[in-house]
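Entry details:
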Amino acid sequence: MAIGMNIAKADVFVHSPGRNFVTLKIVTESGLVGYGDATVNGRELSVASYLRDHLLPIIIGRDAQNIEDTWQYLYRGSYWRRGPITMTAIAAIDMALWDIKAKAANVPLYQLLGGASRVGCLAYGHASGSDFKEIFDSIRYHQEKGYRAIRVQAAVPSLNSVYGVPGIGKSSKGKSAGKRHDYEPAQRSSKPVEEEWDTRAYLNHMPKVFEAVRNEFGPELPLLHDAHHRLTPIEAARLGKSLEPYDLFWLEDLTPAENTDVFRLIRQHTTTPIAVGEVFNSIFDYKALFEEQLIDYVRSPVSHAGGITALRKIFDYAAIYQIKSGVHGPTDVSPIGHAASLHLGMAIHNYGISEYMQHNSETNDVFEPEYTFKDGLIHPGTSAGLGVSYNEKLAASFEYKPAYLPVNRLKIDGTVHDW
């Protein structure tokens, strides 16, 4: 055991610099500090409690170097395994321990994961709009910022609001939904806002959107789209087939993924690449999808899939079947979680692409991430560890405020629908 490498203390911070984040800080006896991201959008306090009340008391005194053993201790030792809250809490500890290990070695984390496999991590940005002109302007804006791959989301005629199109929405009762925070759908409110949905209108409109985008920007620009779990399997198959002429980089989260068998049907009907997994949190969620080669990209972020230790195993498993990474990277993944994903992405061979929604200035002031974005690529930086800090004093000035993701109802009759 190295002198001073036992865990001496750990703290959890819940603050809202631009949006709500849960941040873990672990300190060794020698004073090395590691940080982890424990944010679950709309359920932040649950993870904070899981850490404070259950996990942190039992890791004090453990050797911070024994990351695999600690991971197994927390996962297998709880008996109640998996689930987003458990796996996010474990992920935060895992991230912090890797941060400490890399700082002790005085190298950026990716060097401990096998070194760099690329010069930087390809990222995609989010373009959206309520009409074609707005969409075109948004794409050009992201191209000017350096993005070389673009996710395209579009408002649907007759719907008041649609996921991925930021702005002012309205609830199903016609009341203002309030301003979007940090370009995400979570809203500061005492209850979730209720939005409406019309699958038929969506399926009829999206091919027109991508036809217009291809006509405007040509065949070379990689385009992505997120259906956000709203379709049935046959509807998902229809969308994939109808968008084949526009050569998408991927279609994301087509249908609720709890039943992975449905991807067999989708795969039979379309050659459009499929990305899945931002709501997955375990390697077991992917088993059939990998072994039957039913998807093309893994969407799980480090923060929600058990940490670097667990996600590395998922990616290595995926690599056997020529499936690549496509890590979830919205602004509700803090710069700590984003940095962890980038270090892993730098090291693995089967890297594909990363979602990169840029945090606002308040968030960046609190976390001071070192990663840089240039010419479409993100690099995690060269500082020892994750390359992200946490300004506790500044963070404390941003009080936590409850925020919820919307609830979806069908426009035709008000039935609760997948969101």
The chain has 13 helices and 20 strands.
